[in-house]
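Sample 1 of the test manifest.
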Amino acid sequence: MNIFRLMADLAHVLAIVILLHKIWKSRSCAGISGKSQILFALVYFMRYLDIMTSYVSFYNSTMKLLFLGTSGATLNLIYRKFKPSYDHNHDSFRIAYLLVPCALLSLFLNHEFSVLEILWTFSIYLESVAILPQLFMVAKTGEAESITSHYLFALGSYRALYVCNWVYRYIAESHFDLIAIIAGLVQTILYCDFFYLYITKVLQNRKLQLPA
Amino acid sequence: YPGIHVKDEL
């Protein structure tokens, strides 16, 4: 565990806390893509199946359970408790366009052709693009609430910090996982446009509004 | 890859 990795995980937890707090406080999930949240839930479920087969540390298992639990809770808030506020007309990204290529890619580009390994690889590929329905929704409505922007910034920072962690681990431990690194880079690149808008607008107390 | 691929991350 290095500082980048710790900060990454904290940013990830912060993102989840911001999202749940926003929905709970406003009693509304307006502006949040349920489809991105479905994809994230799928990502955690596929990746953390190994919680039963391999033990890394107490920290590791706790975080896995936290991500599984909170993603289930988020889906419950969006699709049950606050369903009337869910903006499904603007959440129109077709997730099959992400699921099918990720599934095919994980069958061909993996570390080992075994069920758990392919599911892990699928989750890594899917995570890298899972935010697209949310970004698509922001682009479609042309704006995002500040709190949604904070959520996206924390969530994007998490994988960017993992990239720093991988550089550190490559130098310090000669450890690297090419699949995770490339997918992590793709994931981070997808947020770049948003990061730019966040820094130039939201941090200056302006609403995130896209140019028409 | 075996040996390199340790899944100790989240």
